[in-house]
Amino acid sequence: MLCSRRQALSLAAAPLFARTAPRFSAAADAFLDDFSRRCFRYFWERASEGTGLVLDRALNSDRPETRQVASSAATGFGLTALCIAAERRWVEPAAARARALAAVRFYAGHSAHVRGWFYHFVDAASGGRVWNCELSSIDTALLLAGILTARAYFDHAELSRLAAQIYARIDFQWMLNGDRALLSMGWKPESGFIEDRWNRYCELMILVLLGLGSPATPLPPAAWHAWRRPKVTYAGHTYISAAPPLFTHQYSHAWVDFRQRRERDGERVDWFRNSVEATLAHRQFCIDLGKREFPGCYSDGLWGITASDSAKGYVAWGGPPRDGPIDGSLVPCAAAGSLMFAPALCLRALETMRRRFGPRVWGRYGFPDAFHPRNGWTNPDVIGIDLGISLLAAENARTGRVWSWFLRNPEIQRALGVAGLEPFA
Questions:
Q1: Which residues pair with 228 in a beta bridge?
Q2: 175-204 confidence digits (pLDDT tens)
Q3: Cis bond leading into 321, ω under 30°?
Q4: DSSP output for 161-210
Q5: What DSSP string describes 241-304?
Q6: Rounded to the nearest 10 degrees, how much is the dihedral formed by the CA atoms of 150, 156, 162, 167?
Q7: 157-169 and 93-109 are packed helices; what angle lies between their axes, rounded to 10 degrees?
Q8: What angle do CA 361, 3, 327 make, to 5 degrees?
Q9: Cα Rg, the chain, nearest whole Å
Q10: Rounded to an integer, what distance in angstroms lies between the CA atom of residue 221 and that of residue 295?
């Protein structure tokens, strides 16, 4: 498909992939600004003013929302979103700081926790556990990433003190559950620790780094190399991957700047380049699906599948290798979450979605969580974590600010050193 002249100008301004923030054209930057503002609007409107907790999901419209289940991970993305909004003056910085402080106060003094670990899903108003969910190690990590970003950005005495208290309270040694280096995925009061461990590459890097940097119960240095690193090769792209959904290559990079860093030991992996390769392989995987099975759904300018809603419920689909009942649906946050890795290709995909499908896929909070290009199905919902990775990746692609703010935390600088992630020229 030929792209418009305006789109071509947008693409000309951004490299296929970049280790430094690309210079977007005025048209491209205007699109990303509109998209980012819409994503942020969700975290402003769909969060409790009292607790600061962000809804797990909501309608992609201004209609009243009856569901009131919040997500710890969505709140972590939301705290980071407040920093972006304050910096860009989408809201008054004092108002953004007050919202962030409300959330940090709630988690420090009122939220249910065990050994510092928080539940995955809670009631937005009370913070009470819902759905008999687990204390989630990864969701606590994503929340903590947002708390530390807010601490660094707002530089507010009480917020900083409470953030440090929350971090120090998390008992990383307890979550090892007897293992020397591999963390459990969580714990339930009814049954104890979840048997599954973070034992293979995925979104775990942010969790392990936070553990290495813990001021009270740090993980041993061996924790960084304890997890498996299987390799995948597709269409000439070889990279480390153990889970097909593309978000596994994005979440840690939303906060941690892996650019120009390589491991000191072992295979000396360049994790930024690894996610670039994963993105390029996934795009080609979608193109090939479009040629073989889903013409009109996927192409070189229209691609993206990652864990999301579908017409039949939530699915952890993706590839390569192919995983889940892929049906031709598009998931916008797949491309959006990789804007920091392959800005031109991801920008083109997002611009194509908006241009081709218009108001059907462009709502109050931006794109729906998923939609089908051919059969008319459009998800009425957006999901907080999917808007979150879209917003943070867009900001990192445009300015690198989230990376810069997060790195101001001395615990993170120390963790990078313990992991042996050294700068290279």
A1: 200
A2: 999 999 999 999 999 999 999 999 999 999
A3: yes
A4: HHHHHHHHH--HHHHTTT-SSPPBSEEETTTEE-S-B--BSSTTHHHHHH
A5: -SS-SGGGGTTGGGTS--TTEEESSTT---HHHHHHHHHHHHHHHHHHHHHHT-TTT-BTTB--
A6: 40
A7: 30
A8: 45
A9: 20
A10: 48
Indicate the residue type of 97. Answer: R
Question: In this structure, what is the dihedral angle of CA atoms 379, 384, 388, 394, given to the nearest 10 degrees?
Answer: 30
**Could you identify the residue written with the tokens 């879209």?**
390
Q: How many helices (H) and strands (E) does the chain have?
A: 14, 13
Instruction: Judge if pTM exceeds 0.85.
Output: yes
Contact 84, 395 (CB under 8 A): yes
Residue with token string 């939609």: 371
pLDDT tens figures, 369-392: 999 999 999 999 999 999 999 999
Closest CA to 330 of 359, 353, 360: 353
Structure tokens at 278: 């994963």
Per-residue pLDDT tens digits for 300-339: 999 999 999 999 999 999 999 999 999 999 999 999 999 9
- Cα 249 off chain centre by: 9
In the structure encoding, which two tokens stand for residue 282, read together?
A: 């996934």
C-alpha torsion 397→370→123→154, nearest 10: 10
- Helix H or strand E encompassing 140: helix 137-154
What integer pLDDT is reported at residue 246 of this predicted model? Answer: 98
Residue whose C-alpha is closest to residue 113's, from 72, 148, 82, 153:
72
**Distant-in-sequence, close-in-space partners of 137: CB < 8 Å, separation ≥ 6:** 117, 175, 183, 184, 185, 186, 198, 207
Contacts of 150 (CB under 8 A, 6+ apart): 79, 80, 82, 83, 100, 104, 159, 163
Long-range interactions of 230-233: CB distance < 8 A, separation 24+? 230/200, 230/201, 232/281, 232/320, 232/321
